[in-house]
Design a protein that fits this description.
Strand content: 15-25%
Shape: globular
Number of domains: 2
Distance between the termini: 77 Å
Helix content: 25-40%
Number of strands: 21
Strand order of the largest sheet: 12-15-16-11-10-18-19
Number of helices: 14
CATH superfamily of the largest domain: Aldehyde Dehydrogenase, Chain A, domain 1
CATH class of the largest domain: Alpha Beta
CATH architecture of the largest domain: 3-Layer(aba) Sandwich
Largest sheet: 7 strands, mixed
Structural class: alpha/beta
């Protein structure tokens, strides 16, 4: 008998979004077999034709945008404007990836030998395993599914157990667009199907987005079971640096959006504010005022600014981190605890929180919170501020606010993150550009942009010799020249 689990609206504990099977390792094996069978035919489909299917999927998503946005708000707790953006990102990703279907996917190079052609092309890896989070339940699957499809792969996707309905709706839209039956398989559950997918011998690539702790487990399991492509997009401890010459109105907007958008549950959320003492009092005071004015409630209410965190357990974890920060010497300027919202019985809400008096060595300044908590540190010197930005194990996103071009460029050059913004918040990546980070944020791969296709394909190098004779590359046929300026002699093949 198959066990099941429920997906519950984080804003209302009595609202069950759906019931889903908790798949086993055997279920994952069956899904991989089905995807592999469909992939063999899909790999023979011309790339431009695959691109047309991806474009059609984007069109279906566009038709269902409002319906999907409502589902994202209900299941993931994102306010409607953010939920709509989540779906729109998938629509845009489909358009971008479809455009790559007629772009070069290899290179030609001149041979060192005559009458010889050299080029590279890209081949699918076979079946790819995708493990996706709940915080972007439509957008992040699109970042993985569409490039993988264009590259000619079959897919088994394991969404977060907190957002299974969103993934099912996304895959249904893709199927309606004309995907071959069986090509994209969905498995549900928590640890067991994820672990089974990571170690399955029939999976040629694994792409994971989630926490550092879980990512390390996935990586260890995947590499222990045999060589394969492994892409990890993990956590962040993103900082916003505000210099004394900054536009404080702009910095204020950036801090509010970056720290409290999606209830601080983005891997790029602004978790640290590193502000110059000359403007700290004014800026922090205004941030506190704005944070206290934010309206919490049902994310499907268009007047609501901030929705819930994903679970009651998450709210308790965030509260524990705030308590630990206070014990280390930080001060709660506003928020700092779970709150009850009228009309949202059992909802997992946490008040937008600002902590002052934080030091770089505090736990709250070093560990990912994944909640609406902004830790404020005052630092005067620019070089010291950059050192604080870099002094954590993460390296995803950072922002610097300044009117001085020299300050901006020094920061861009020295900040050790995969993404740097100038006079813009730490959130808001655009799909034509690569997304990912340094250090423990990932393992070097990038999603989105043209780089997003690379993790789901393998390079094949091709040599075509039409000389009609044996030509020897990588053999030293040049005599050693001891004369000044003498040109190398002819190759023995050409003599």
């Amino acid at each position: 008998m198959t066990t099941t689990f429920r997906s519950v609206n984080p804003a209302r504990s009595d609202d069950v979004v759906g019931e889903f099977p908790a798949h086993t390792a055997d279920d994952v094996d069956a899904a991989v077999v089905r995807a592999a069978e469909a992939q063999r035919a899909w790999a023979r489909v011309p790339v431009p034709t695959r691109a047309e299917v991806v474009a059609a999927a984007g069109a279906v998503l566009a038709e269902r945008k409002q319906e999907l946005a409502d589902l994202v708000a209900r299941e993931a707790g994102k306010v409607l404007v953010e939920a709509g953006g989540d779906v729109q990102e998938a629509i845009d990703m489909a358009a971008f990836v479809a455009g790559q279907g007629r772009a070069a996917m290899g290179e030609t190079v001149p041979s060192e030998l005559g009458d010889k052609l050299c080029w590279t092309t890209r081949q699918p890896v076979g079946v790819v395993g995708l493990i996706t989070p709940w915080n972007f339940p439509v957008a992040i699957p699109s970042w993985k599914v569409f490039p993988a499809l264009l590259a000619g792969n079959g897919i088994v996707i394991k969404p977060s157990e907190h957002a299974p309905a969103c993934c099912e709706a996304f895959v249904a839209a893709c199927a309606e667009a004309g995907l071959p039956e069986g090509l994209v398989q969905v498995v549900h559950g928590a640890a067991e199907p994820a672990a089974a997918l990571a170690v399955h011998p029939g999976v040629g690539a694994v792409s994971f987005t989630g926490s550092v702790a879980t990512g390390r487990k996935v990586a260890a399991a995947a590499m222990e079971s045999g060589p394969r492509v492994l892409s990890l997009e993990l956590g962040g401890k993103n900082a916003m640096v505000v210099r004394p010459d900054a536009d404080l109105d702009l910095a204020l907007d950036g801090a509010i959006f970056g720290a409290f958008g999606t209830s601080g549950q983005r891997c790029t959320s602004t978790s640290r504010l590193i502000v110059h003492p000359d403007v700290a009092e004014e800026l922090v005071g205004r941030i506190v005022e704005r944070a206290e004015a934010l309206r919490l409630g049902d994310p499907r209410d268009p007047t609501v600014d901030v929705g819930p965190v994903i679970t009651a357990a998450a709210a308790e974890r965030i509260a524990g981190m705030v308590e630990a920060a206070v014990a280390e010497g930080a001060t709660v300027a506003t928020g700092g605890k779970p709150v009850t919202v009228a009309g949202c019985e059992g909802g997992a809400f946490f008040a937008p929180t600002v902590l002052t008096g934080v030091r770089p060595d505090h736990r709250i300044a070093r560990e990912e919170v994944f909640g609406p908590v902004l830790a404020v540190m005052e630092v005067a010197d620019l070089d010291e501020a950059i050192d604080v930005v870099n002094g954590v194990e993460y390296g995803l996103s950072a922002a610097v606010y300044t009117r001085d071009i020299s300050t901006a460029l020094r920061a861009v050059e020295r900040i050790d993150t995969g993404i740097v913004y100038v006079n813009a918040p730490t959130i808001g990546a655009e799909i034509p550009l690569p997304f990912g980070g340094t250090k423990h944020t990932g393992n070097g791969f990038r999603e989105a942009g043209t780089r997003g296709i690379e993790q789901f394909s393998q390079i094949k190098t091709v040599y075509v010799d039409y000389s009609g004779r044996l030509q020897k590359a990588q053999i030293d046929t040049h005599p050693i020249d001891t004369g000044a300026g003498a040109a190398p002699g002819p190759r023995e093949e050409d003599a």
